[in-house]
Amino acid sequence: SLAVLKADAEEARLMAGQLGMEAERARQAEVEAQQQAALLEEALDSLRHAENPHLQLHQLQLLHRLPLSSICSLQAQICSCLRTVEQ
């Protein structure tokens, strides 16, 4: 009947709206992850190519914009770089 079709159409419209919102949230999360990865790469590149192996203030300032998991990963990579410099 017409009422059933209208109800189905409304349900489909609501579901499409929810899926659209989920897709937008996923897109925003992807953009944020790409930005964090770019910051991490910038910090690592700066460490690898610095004339002074000690951390510079501007390199440390990049870290406050990263999530804790990225900082832990960066810490492990920094330790590896410093061990290489010491050898």
Ranges where pLDDT stays below 50 over 5 or more residues in a row are: none
Tell me the overall shape: rod-shaped
Strand proportion: under 5%
Structural class: mainly alpha
Q: Into how many domains do the coordinates divide?
A: 1
Give the beta-strand count: 0
What's the order of the H and E elements? HHH
* Terminal residue distance: 80 Å
Mean pLDDT: 80
Report the helical percentage.
over 70%
Rg result: 23 Å
The biggest sheet, with number of strands, parallel, antiparallel or mixed sense and barrel status, is: none
* Total count of helical runs of at least 4 residues: 3
Coiled coil: 23-50
Keywords: Coiled coil
Task: Describe the secondary structure blueprint for this structure.
Blueprint: H1 2-49, H2 57-63, H3 68-86
Characterization of this structure:
Residues 23-50 form a coiled coil. Keywords: Coiled coil. This protein has 87 residues and is mostly helical. The chain has one domain (2-86). Helices cover 85% and strands 0% of the residues. The protein has three helices and no strands. It has helices spanning 2-49, 57-63, 68-86. Helix 1 packs antiparallel against helix 2 (57-63) and helix 1 runs parallel beside helix 3 (68-86).
Which descriptors apply to this entry?
mainly alpha, coiled coil, 3 helices, 85% helix, 87 residues
Summarize the structure.
The chain is mostly helical and 87 residues long. The protein has helices at residues 2-49, 57-63, 68-86. It has one domain.
